[in-house]
Amino acid sequence: MGELLRLEPRVGTKAMLLPGLGFAGGTLARDMQTLRHLGDRFDLDTPLLDGAWKSNAEQNRLVLRKLIAALGDLRGARVAVLGLTYKADTSTLRRSAAIEVISDLAKAGAM
Length: 111
Hints:
- The protein has helices at residues 2-6, 26-41, 47-71, 97-107.
- By secondary structure, the chain is mostly helical.
- The relative contact order is 0.15.
């Protein structure tokens, strides 16, 4: 399916279509938050956006849950995190899922 989607000129051959934890990066998050705030402002429900936002936040915590399941207590555990940006060939860390994962790991006592 991904290969077919890349044939679409509006998407292109270099589209990042590989599954990951969830979405990350500044643009999509900003747009979703803007739409959610507009819903609040005009007293409109945004259940799809709210659900996607909540589900995405839970996906970021999946790494921590899996590490705790595999290793138990993470206090003092040495953990390496690769891939800090939200997509290849970019240097931006805006809304990097890896930064959120690192924060959760640090709170759990990992080093």
